[in-house]
Amino acid sequence: MPSPRFNRKYQDGQSIDWITEDAVERERNYAHRAQKSIRGLLSRWADSARIWTVIILTGMGIGTIGAWLDVLVKWLGDLREGVCSHGFFYNQVTCCSGVDPGEVCTNWQTWGEHFDIRFIFVESLMQSFIYILLGLIFAGSAAVLVTTYAPYAFHTGIPEIKAILGGYVLDAFLTPWTLLIKALGLALAVASGLSLGKEGPLVHVACCMAFSLSRLFKQFQHSEGQRRKLLAASAAAGISVAFGSPLGGVIFCLEELDTFASDAEVLWRGFVASAVAAVSLQYVDPFGTSKLVLFQVTNGSDTWRAFELIPWLGLGVIGGVLGSILIKLNVEAAIVRRTSVLNDWPILEVIGVSSITAAISYLIVFTRVQSSELVANLFQECDPSKGDYHGLCNPAAVWGNVFLLILTAIIKIGLTAWTFGMMIPAGIFLPTITIGACLGRAMGILTQSLQTSYPGAWLFLSCPPDPSVRCVSPGFYAVMGAAAMLAGVTRMTSEYSFNGSTLVLITFQLTGALSHVLPIMISVMTAKWVGDALGKDGIYSVWIAMRQYPWLPPVDYHDKGETAADVMRTAQHLTVIDEGELALNDLDGLLRDHAFHGFPVVKERELVGYVTRAKLRVIVDSFAADEMHKKCCFSNKNGTFNDDHVNLSSTLENSVIQLRKDVPLELVVRVFQKMNLRQILFTDAGKLVGMVTKTDVVALMTAHFTHTAALR
Amino acid sequence: MPSPRFNRKYQDGQSIDWITEDAVERERNYAHRAQKSIRGLLSRWADSARIWTVIILTGMGIGTIGAWLDVLVKWLGDLREGVCSHGFFYNQVTCCSGVDPGEVCTNWQTWGEHFDIRFIFVESLMQSFIYILLGLIFAGSAAVLVTTYAPYAFHTGIPEIKAILGGYVLDAFLTPWTLLIKALGLALAVASGLSLGKEGPLVHVACCMAFSLSRLFKQFQHSEGQRRKLLAASAAAGISVAFGSPLGGVIFCLEELDTFASDAEVLWRGFVASAVAAVSLQYVDPFGTSKLVLFQVTNGSDTWRAFELIPWLGLGVIGGVLGSILIKLNVEAAIVRRTSVLNDWPILEVIGVSSITAAISYLIVFTRVQSSELVANLFQECDPSKGDYHGLCNPAAVWGNVFLLILTAIIKIGLTAWTFGMMIPAGIFLPTITIGACLGRAMGILTQSLQTSYPGAWLFLSCPPDPSVRCVSPGFYAVMGAAAMLAGVTRMTSEYSFNGSTLVLITFQLTGALSHVLPIMISVMTAKWVGDALGKDGIYSVWIAMRQYPWLPPVDYHDKGETAADVMRTAQHLTVIDEGELALNDLDGLLRDHAFHGFPVVKERELVGYVTRAKLRVIVDSFAADEMHKKCCFSNKNGTFNDDHVNLSSTLENSVIQLRKDVPLELVVRVFQKMNLRQILFTDAGKLVGMVTKTDVVALMTAHFTHTAALR
């Protein structure tokens, strides 16, 4: 009988035992139900109230942080270009908020104006100098903060969160310090203009918040299972804020459902957390727009023509290929960073990359602005009444625009591959869709100019004959390209079979392109197909494998005829407890000599059960020294119980799964994936023949990847 | 080693053995891979090509059927009100297609005009008589078709499809006859004006189509597993067409994923099937609108105010309560129908209900039109430039409208409760959202009139001060009501934990109300909460329980401290094969005496393995008569193999899961749910102590429902 008296404190780096965790939670529920009085009811309510408190506070917190992060980033970003004469703490929008439309805002001054420099050349030199310098300072401060105070605040955080939700213990990853540094560092990193996004890190921040809040209550201290359910809900809240999509948060919870025993409960909490976070974000409403979604395309045409499938399939192929290339480059960059001298100078590396980024970005018009602004503009259709964004709509500059867009995409691929993994908070979502949107827009502009040049061609006969009516919508091509690139980088099958839907859904909600879901689906499908042909793993899987977290990817595994017997550690090589043979002090020695999580118990090679190290430790310690010579019995099989034996049958685990050794390997993997086990014992006609652990299965699943454990 | 030589033909009413089916498919893959020559490659391609052929043909087929069904229903529906002077086979739209906007269409004549009746009274009598008569004829013909040719074509079909996807065998449900009758009967039933929808039955039609196509290929004849994967994909295509939402189809596949071994494969096929079906529907494009979605609200305002949460929460509560009432009424109706004289007169029943429906419907303006038209109009905001739908926007008729809308909802609840279960094809989706939309609109009109009457009240201060600007959008309240009602009737947790998301998603895509996802989520959550408090099961679960299909609802089960030992059939009550004791002719007798699916094999009470009836049958039959006295051995445990024994060890199942009898019941249920097993064996230190089968678990899960097996 598992009970709280068994010490279940885990160390960082261990994996929790889900079956035990579930059992503890069940015990707790039984205990509550057994108390028939008001007190039992109250303690159940209190349990539930604490959970909801953490969830709602996390939702409100991450909504607020998300909102203020936007404000901070906007201000820091604007500061790189100029300053408000009313006070340096105003951003450009608030600085000019009192000005009538049409009037020139004189309060906002570029740095050149501010220092009253008259010479154009000096002014532009000054301008670019401050632009680059501030970028360096922001990026450098972020790197200093991360390396000094919270090394776990680097990177996106998603791989770790996946591993933690799966049962990995990494408390250092979720401290309040990490929360603070990640949020602050994220604002600095984004404002520095490096090629990174805020989406993944925001999810990490939400998880830190839930974890820190959960430490206030004793209830969660002894239940890693309950804690993980809280983390799942708060990750949903993070996604809800990062993408402005409460539905996206819920779907993320669905992805993680296999891990948890109580599906509906987790989903329901994720639902509430996402909703609360979205409402908080909307309530704080930093830009006064009261719109949740990040990018919105509303003026695209409602219909699409069959010939457009050709460029869209092309975008799918490009997304798949470039996604694979980006993943490969990123892995190479991570390995070079780890094995070279750069490993010792993380801050200098960040400053170096940031100066290169800033210098290049300042030269090209599309890279100078913040990525989110660029994407929003690329998603917009040309509308003469709204003005032309950097000449994108100029029909005379087709080739120039296409060249610039492709150049931007190539530069971004290189920069992103290096940036994603440096010692700063950095998400990969925004850079990915920026690359995709550039390529998509380029494709759209090309298709449009082809159509307007040859309106009578057979292909374009389905277009309206009136040349003033737009037939091809390049803005939508940008959406398409972004979706395809995202599919190529995060890859549906590798992450989870229905990351794909999340992807389509998020893209869809990001853009509001309701009538165009179908083409997006087709393009995403193509990208996935092409990408899978070039390598099965998405970017997060690759990072999990490189850091060797014990995480089972929920992908299909197909054996080639192997059975469990081919991978299991056979009984001869297992450390087992032989019932009736070992005395208590032998057990004590066993526990000292071996660090295993548990031991199978056998009697004359026949399997009796499985006992965990933790329970054994407690039981052995509970006996007096003069009893230590007594033999241990776990079952009363041959009626051998007598005064020379101690009965340890209560320590046996109830929930041990046994299979035959001839079972196909495929099925073994599936049992591990679906039931979230730590080990399976294999028997043949009652005799123990072997054991397979989660670690064995993880090794099996990552065997094809050459850089496994490269960043361990 | 399972191989195709074992007869795995299932009879209707049996459940398939997933583990065996998976094993067969694995064998097939091994065999293909083993053939290294071109031939092996070709046969793999051919396998895959056959699957894709069925999927793509099904997608195209269901898209086309869906499109033509709309045309047929429109024509039959119009025929009840009038006729085209050019020919009776035109519907109103095509009849008047040549007429300029503004001009009166004289080609389309009401029946009164057609027969040239001058007296208003006679004309309106004539009009209503034909309206009711044609309704009777349509409904009656549908009932005659169903009862005579394909009894399985009645009802929605969703409960059966869920059971079949879970492993139930019901080939009669998927014949080409059923396909034809269901499609034809559906058109007649919808046109008859009965309170039913076409969504569920369309999914059934799609499954019939895939099943019929699969029978053309030998590949699927021996693999019920492969067949079910095809059915899952085609069900997705059906949903894609029924709701105009390819994404909805994919999410349906996700719901069913737990059933299948190869998640990504099934999802991918569902993806393609949904996309092909949607493209086909759009290509055929019956109404020339080239829009996929059924209902679209685009002119609602972008923002909402906090005070609106009060009526919306109210709608959630109403949806939960009325949803529960509708389910209870429907169950009562089904039981009365089965136990009373009505059981013998199904056609008369349909005609009777249809005449009552037609008579009532003709009297009330909102019930006379087709439900889909009513819903589309209820979802529309009032717009002076677009005309007023039946006075809904008249501010002077608030109370009249509210009364009429509530009356309509009440009538629809009664009619739907009775109609859903009669011998005609009938879905429950459309009636449910109609009821919800009526109530929602009523709530919206009330809130709006309250706000316009007291614009200065504290609650309404967040509204714009200008009275000409609309603050409350009653059309969106209708969407909200529909979503809440749907949640109350189908209930998220009962169907599947994330039916909820499907629901929000479909509602969301149906209406395009992008900025309002959050309030819809809140309202759906409330409806689920309230509904669950009044009864845990959704409408489909209830029907599955009443017809006692062996289907495991994927809901959380919480035991009260019971273990497997409390529900298992103990070893003393099991029919087991005692190794070394039984001769071959004893086995023969065993197979004759018992109809069990398989038998555990023991030796001196110790578990040796599990053997299925089918394999045993084949093995026993393969021996000559003079060998029948030989003893059977399944293991060579004590080295007892000799000439007096036959070695049957190859018949043992490889994939048998063993657990300890002390395992909590909760975990047993979870293993069944996640691994889709037929049985689990329980052992204690190697000895067989009991067995639990899927049937036991289903009985456990439906124990709380009083009408289990009422319609068996």
UniProtKB/TrEMBL annotation, chains A, B:
It comes from the Eukaryota. The keyword rRNA processing does not apply. One of its GO terms (cellular component) is Golgi apparatus. PROSITE patterns: CBS. It holds the Pfam family Voltage_CLC. Residues 568-627, 652-711 form the CBS domain. It is found in: Membrane. Belongs to the chloride channel (TC 2.A.49) family. InterPro entries: CBS_dom, CBS_dom_sf, Cl-channel_core, ClC. Its main location: membrane. Gene3D superfamilies: CBS-domain (3.10.580.10), Clc chloride channel (1.10.3080.10). It is a multi-pass membrane protein. GO terms for molecular function: voltage-gated chloride channel activity. The lineage of its organism: Eukaryota, Fungi, Dikarya, Basidiomycota, Agaricomycotina. PANTHER family: CHLORIDE CHANNEL PROTEIN (PTHR45711). The keyword Heme does not apply. The chain crosses the membrane at residues 49-69, 129-152, 164-189, 201-218, 230-252, 309-327, 347-365, 396-415, 427-447, 467-490, 502-522. Keywords: CBS domain, Chloride, Ion transport, Membrane, Transmembrane, Transmembrane helix, Transport. This is Chloride channel protein. It comes from Dendrothele bispora (strain CBS 962.96).
